[in-house]
Amino acid sequence: MKKLSLLALLTIIFSCNSVQKYNRQRETKLPPEKLKQDVDYAYKKLKELHPNLFWYVSEKDLNKKFDSLKLSITDSLSPVDFYFKIQPAVADIREGHLAVRIPGKRYSGKEIRTMKNKKGLFGRLDYYVENQKLYVLTNKDSIENILPGTEILAINDVPVEKFMKKYRKLMTSDGYNSTFYPYYLKDSFFNYYSAENGFLDSAKIETKYEDVIKTVNLTRESKSEADKEKDKAQKKGNTEKRTNDYVAATDSYNRSFKYLDQDSTIAYIKVKSFSKSYSERFYRETFQKIKDKKATHLVIDVRENYGGSLSEINNLYSYLAKEPFKLVNKPEMTSKYSPLKTNYFRKTSPIGYLVKGIMAPFIFTRQLFVGKKGKDGKAYYSMKHSKETKPKETAFQGKVYVLINGGSFSASSIITSKLKNDKRAILVGEETGGANDGTVAGFYSYQSLPNSKLQLPIGVLFIQPNIDFTNTKKGVTPNVEILNSFESTLNKEDPQLEWVKAEIEKEKAGI
């Protein structure tokens, strides 16, 4: 026990020193020659590990972009300022999963505990981005009486337009589609802002509602005892919470199921994220219920689903397929040894090193054999999702509609492109933010730039759905395009779902 206590104490001391060292380092300016070395290192690692680097940009053009980046570095910069230099160049590769990590400030355990006892500053509001403007969509706590539909014009006297232009350069979709940005920007805007400016206890915002401009002061309030009790209750698990994948941070479920009509003929499944957590149970129980009720139509909603687990979408497809299928082709890599370059000991505590050290021989042995060279000379990664899967006994046999939008990304794009290609579903909405023909992700090799210490996770698997490729370099396009707007969202209207319901009623009426 004494040894364990000593090890725990050493872990705490190590962690505190690590936080202080990191925060000093992120603010220390580095000379131009050191930063240029980091640019060269990043580009070298991208060419070494990224399996499809020149899909959306030619090697010649990318060389020019990185050369221009180095020429633009003429002054000493902190890692934070350097991030805003290098990330736009990485974004020009147009791979949505590929991004340098913004070096946000780190906090000690004591500071984190203090923040947990306070409410959010910006996070208690929900937002919407349209035409490069930031609007408040919901205000559940009625903070400062900010009404839904309010536009935020400035934060601490800095115009929101300036932040929009700055942050927009940092992000990319897969390929040349533009639908992804409003969704990702509304979700990431204050993540960028907080990483750049720290977690503030207060902020002055300038707002406009119905042409009336006013200034509002937001403060980070302390949680009441009732709030703390609510937090505890949210963390407590039960069967429903586990099966539907309850997310305490948003007080909502990742998955939900219901019927859209009284006679239970139209089933509706909403998946916010393919997290995999308890997903097998959810789909097993849900599709059994659908079969028992003899539902004739199924609506699957993956709008604003940024993706996640290939295992979950492979399992979901097995409840939709009418014959054996292969979800994805064998993922391509730059080398069969790429799985060994995933930084196994990254972010490991002293105790973690001991545990991982014991497991390392088994992990490395496995990784050594999952990469193989094909007859074409290319390296491929072996995974079960690239093998044939049989439909489930309770697989749905009726008509399927899938709702998509620009927030449907990664795994959401893979399953919807497969459904469309196989003519197993009618897609309704807008072009997805993820590419139709595949993406580079899977697992990552985490690279640390030697001088700035910026983190660059590089996906090592080129994953493509088993389809006839469109070669459009864009997202999955819907069979029926129905666009949304801020006005309809504000009014809680859903034109995409309403179209589907109306179409099903026409089918039932034989029109």
UniProtKB/TrEMBL annotation:
One family name in Pfam for this protein: Peptidase_S41
Domain Tail specific protease: 227-483
Matches recorded under PROSITE patterns: PROKAR_LIPOPROTEIN
Signal peptide: 1-21
Record keywords: Signal
Domain of life according to the entry: Bacteria
Tagged with keyword Heme: no
Record InterPro entries: ClpP/crotonase-like_dom_sf, Tail-specific_protease
Region spans: Disordered: 223-243
Protein name: S41 family peptidase
Provenance organism: Chryseobacterium caseinilyticum
Lineage: Bacteria, Pseudomonadati, Bacteroidota, Flavobacteriia, Flavobacteriales
